[in-house]
Write a structure and sequence with these properties.
The protein is an alpha/beta fold. It has 2 domains: 174 residues, Glycogen Phosphorylase B (Rossmann fold, 3-Layer(aba) Sandwich); 182 residues, Rossmann fold (3-Layer(aba) Sandwich). 42% of the residues lie in helices and 18% in strands.
């Protein structure tokens, strides 16, 4: 197979960037040469460099329409005789179209990681009506449905769920350092969430549920952990103070590289988002045997077998969320049963299966 060039313009580290990293890692493991183009000041670029994966740095202040941006990529493609371009973000999609305009023999695949309607506005219509895209690869059935509803021909859409490294997630984890750092007892029941601190993730609903739970139960071993960074951190911390729950029992960790160690210590994982596409964080939690309580949004229901590996709640319903959390606290044997099923259910989303499907599409399947 021809060499694959991945483009990811995200500067922060999120589920999309982890997936780009895994795509390159496992394409190489399958004997397919690949390289990633990403901003020089991105977390992804630093990770790829640290692990000696080939990568091309975009200038820190690049723009998709700057000729220097796509000329650098075209030069790399010609030098390596690259045959496949796989874009991972909206800006990367734009860059990919400009590159293929000059290199018509190149195969262009576009990952679809957002759930807003495609083709909105002048630029959007140009991007999604272009014949230069060979196929859109949606990361969920829900996202594929949005593309079809946006008048993208069904034959140009494929669904490949994001994949996870089961062997990494299910290996023994070091939870002791995290617990020691934040003064959490070894036997604590930790209910937690992971994600950007923003309005879409709606951690306010989680904090409201926490207040009710702490009023309802006086258990000394119950802790709540919010992992992630974002522009709403101060607002969320101030809200927690106003509710009288900020401090020892409610912990904001900020951005963490040891997120798998932290999540593996969770008793439950909570996702209170108003909107999602597929959400890798819930999938990773399931793989580690952590049942999930989540809103029924986007492609997340494709991961959850309700009552078996998690429960659904309504968006913004802190009362329903607190009820589900209390149910698990009061029924530890049910939590254990769901934990075992959660690990098993995550196996259908292995990165090996994802790569197999991606390669099949690249081969014209």
């Amino acid at each position: 197979m021809n060499k694959v060039l991945l483009i990811d313009t995200g500067r922060k580290w999120g589920g999309g960037q982890r997936q780009t990293y895994l795509l390159q890692k496992y394409l190489i493991r399958n004997g397919i040469s690949s390289v990633t183009v990403t901003p020089e000041n991105s977390v992804l670029y630093k990770k790829l460099q640290n692990e000696n994966f080939e990568s091309v740095a975009l200038p820190n202040f690049f723009t998709a329409y700057n000729p220097a941006t796509y000329c650098r990529i075209i030069s790399k493609i010609k030098k390596d005789n690259t045959g496949i371009l796989y874009t991972q973000t909206s800006n990367a999609h734009t860059i990919g179209l400009l590159v293929k305009f000059f290199l018509r023999k190149l195969k262009l695949y576009v990952a679809r990681r957002v759930i807003r309607p495609a083709g909105r506005g002048f630029t959007g219509r140009i991007k999604y009506n272009s014949r230069l895209v060979d196929k859109y690869i949606a990361v969920s059935e829900f996202s594929a449905g949005v593309l079809r509803d946006s008048d993208i021909p069904a034959e140009k859409i494929a669904v490949v769920h994001d994949g996870i490294e089961l062997d990494v997630l299910q290996a023994d984890k070091n939870t002791a350092d995290f617990k020691k750092e934040f003064g959490i007892p070894d036997n604590a029941l930790i209910v937690g969430t992971v994600g950007a601190l923003d309005k879409i993730k709606d951690q306010i609903t989680f904090l409201k549920a926490i207040r009710y739970i702490l009023e309802k139960t006086k258990r000394d071993d119950l802790y709540f952990v919010i992992v992630g960074s974002g522009n709403l951190r101060k607002e969320l911390e101030d809200f927690a103070r106003q509710q009288g729950i900020y401090g020892k029992k409610v912990i904001f960790t900020g951005f963490r590289f040891d997120v798998f160690d932290i999540v593996s210590s969770f008793f439950l994982f909570v996702l209170s988002s108003k909107s999602e596409n597929f959400c890798n964080a819930t999938l990773e939690a399931l793989a580690m045997g952590v049942p999930v309580i989540t809103t029924k949004v986007g492609g997340v229901p494709e991961q959850i077998d309700e009552g078996k590996n998690g429960f659904f709640i309504n968006v913004g319903d802190s009362g329903m969320l607190s009820e589900k959390i209390l149910y698990f606290i009061d029924n530890p044997e049910k939590r254990q049963e769901m934990s075992l099923y959660a690990r098993k259910s995550a196996e259908r989303f292995s990165i090996q299966k994802t790569i197999k499907e991606v390669i099949r599409i690249f081969d014209g399947g």
